[in-house]
Every structure is written in structure tokens, then in C-alpha cells.
Amino acid sequence: xxxxxxxxxxxxxxxxxxxxxxxxxxxxxDAGELVERFSRSSGPGxxxxxxxxxxxxxxxxxxxxxxxxxxxxxxRERLLDRLASRLVGGRLIVVASEHRSQRQNRVVARQRLVxxxxxxxxxxxxxxxxxxxxxxxxxxxxxxxxxxxxxKSARRTTDDG
Length: 161
Description:
Blueprint: E1 15-17, E2 27-29, E3 34-39, E4 55-60, H1 66-69, H2 73-83, E5 87-88, E6 91-96, H3 102-121, H4 135-155
């Protein structure tokens, strides 16, 4: 069997979500919590597309996951809240079918799940503090508008009748 590619999730093993914003310790989703289904893909593959089940559906239930349950309350609530719109029947389903091989599609589906979990767990960015124009920039803007107005008024013809 080929050696695993460094940094990529491998099919059939626990899924490791690396530490990042919101996940200070990272997250390891047990392989038993992931359900993989395979079906025929409509993508590239020529005649082989009719005979191989290369499309992958990766199914994960974040609400019953032991890995998610071990997160701090605030992070768990944020993660479940943000994933709520993507859940189908309470489960998160990730589909990959762009590659010809089932193995590549399994890796892609796992990478997408990792990305979704990381983005959902990340805290909101700090709110932008609006800035104010400086007095000098305000003055220059008004002077520019006045000059432009004077230029336009100088173009008008006077009506001495």
C-alpha cells in the first residue's frame, strides 16, 4: 500500500482537525463516528464511470459526536450553531465526486469536513472600528468641491437681454 501523504487525512482512520482559532487543542473525530457511502459518479471517467462507485458521501453527526462533546461549551455551541444550516436530518453530509478514483474522493471529502469544522469553530473576527476623516482631509475635500463649482460656474453664459 502507498505511504500516506503528509498532512492529508487518510481514509478509514480517525479524522484529525488541527489546532487553530477556536480549537486550541485540535479535534480528533473517531472513525466510528464517520459513515462513508459510495455511489456512481456523473463526472469524468469514460466507460469506467458506469462501473465504479467513485462518488463519496461522508456523513457526520456533530450533535452526538464524542469529539464535539469534549469541546468547551462556548466552542461547541458556536460549532453546532454554524453547522445547523448545513445539516440534513441532523447530520452533516459532505460529497466529493470530482476525481475518477474513490480513494481521491474519500480524501477530498475528509478535507472538506475538516475545513467545515474548523471554520464553524473559529470565533468571529473582531468588529471593525469605524475611522473618522481627518480635519485636513475634510478641508481639502471641501476646497476641491468649491474649485470645481467655480470652474463650472465660469463656463455659464450670462443672459443680458
